[in-house]
Amino acid sequence: MMFRKANSFKVINNLTINKSSPVSLVHFLTNRCNARCSFCFIDFNDPKTFKGELTIEEINSLTKNMHDTLLNVNFTGGEPFARKDILEIAKCYIDNTTIQSIYITTNGSLPERALNFVKKVNEYNADIELNLQISIDALGEQHDKIRKIKGLFDKAVETYKLINSLSIANINSSVNITVTHENYENVDQIYDELKNTHGVKNLKCILVRDEGIYQTPDKLKKDLLNSYNNLVLKINSDQNKKDNKNFNKNSIQGKIHRAKDKISYKLVKEMYLENSYLSPCHASSLFGVIGASGDVFPCEILEDKKIGNLRDYNMNFKELWKDDLNKKTKKWILESKCRCTYECGLSFNIIGNYRYYPRLFLEFLK
Ligand code: SF4
Ligand code: SF4
Fold first, then answer.
1. Bridge partners of 85?
2. Which among 326, 336, 245 is positioned nearest to 286, based on CA atoms?
3. How many CB atoms lie within 10 A of CB 182?
4. 125, exposed or middle or buried, with CB in 10 Å at 0-12, 13-18, 19+?
5. pLDDT by residue (tens digit) across 182-191?
6. Fewest 10 Å CB contacts: which of 67, 162, 180, 306?
7. Is 363:263 a contact under the CB 8 Å cutoff?
């Protein structure tokens, strides 16, 4: 069976033809975070930011009302491990939906909680693929300074090592470097030291997005892109030498993610400065975002295109997704040729578009 619980025919039909229901969702479990990064899109000064987090009962209901094409959920935040019931949330998704993988974006400040979580999920269901993406943007105290947590760098490296020391094929952790105006001049050095001094081999990178209250200064964008490109060259070279093992190299999904990442790096390079339009975006169809208090959006960027709040749909995700407003949003995204370098979005735009299949196939075979 190609997909764990999902109907393979439906999934493939949805990805290639219908494009009507999500194969992946980003779920912001909370807006709470113990860090305070200068480039964070969360407005921590707004008291409304922390209000009305979905309860575990609500998450249980919402996961019971999801499409049977869903393959992946990405827990993010805030800091997802700030939610002490994260294991229960994962169980809701595992029991009630057709997911086969959970990705978690974390600042890595809570190694024991992260380790306990992956072990418990694995005991609960060993088929679920778990991938922790730990954010590190600088070395040592500089990282602590940017994210405003003392000792964070060491904790993040510890989290990476603890997870990978389990040596379970379905469980992986990687470090994600976000190239920002604060680190673009020395990301090369950060990469090398992480790899050679701290033993962090699984490394990825993204370009910081203009989102929420964060804007990259225009005059720095060219330099940021150059630094990003150099980093991508290093990552690709290490992946080709099998030094860098992002994702599970033995699973179909892991291999697809690796292949798609390589194409995504190229697309970001082509789009970032000129804001060029390359292909349609399938936000509001193949993927979407659930906010901490139940607001649903097409993606993380279109904050003004809220589709609705799950509480107004009795926590029925399917009902909300088929609402006219979502149809209109989907139409607007296609007709306006909406474009951006949001990696999650690019992932599903690559997987849901025939023109990328030959490249995807070639990368898949490597
Ligand atoms: S760790 Fe993430 S969520 Fe927390 S402040 Fe930094 S960017 Fe924001
Ligand atoms: S192109 Fe970007 S901003 Fe537009 S809908 Fe897609 S992910 Fe969102």
1. none
2. 326
3. 17
4. middle
5. 899 999 999 9
6. 306
7. yes
Q: Where are the alpha helices (DSSP H) in 101-251?
A: 111-124, 140-147, 152-164, 187-196, 221-240
For residue 25, the cross-strand partners are: 73, 288
Q: Relative to the CA of 105, which ligand 1 atom is closest?
A: 2
Burial of 8 (0-12, 13-18, 19+ CB in 10 A): exposed
Q: At residue 224, what are phi and psi to the nearest 5 degrees?
A: -60, -40
Give dist(CA 331, CA 280) in Å, integer: 11
Q: 16: pLDDT confidence band, cut at 50, 70 and 90?
A: confident
Tell me how far the alpha carbon of residue 364 lies from the centroid of ligand 1, in angstroms. 32
Ligand 2 binding pocket includes 342 (Cβ within 6 Å) = yes
pLDDT tens per residue, range 198-247: 999 999 998 887 766 667 778 888 999 999 999 999 998 888 787 777 66
Helix residue ranges, H only, 293-351: 317-321, 324-335, 343-351
| Pocket flag, ligand 2, residue 302 (CB < 6 Å) | yes
Closest Cα to residue 311, out of 90, 81, 95, 51?
A: 51
> What ligand is nearest to the CA atom of residue 38?
1
Q: Which residue has a Cα nearest atom 4 of ligand 2?
A: 338
Q: Give the Å distance between the CA of 345 and the centre of ligand 2.
A: 7
Give pTM, 2 decimals.
Answer: 0.91
d(CA 324, CA 148): 43
Atom 8 of ligand 1, residue of closest alpha carbon: 40
Expressed in angstroms and rounded, the spacing between residue 309 Cα and the centre of ligand 1 is: 23
Ligand 1 touching residue 345 (CB < 6 A): no
CA distance 202 to 243: 8
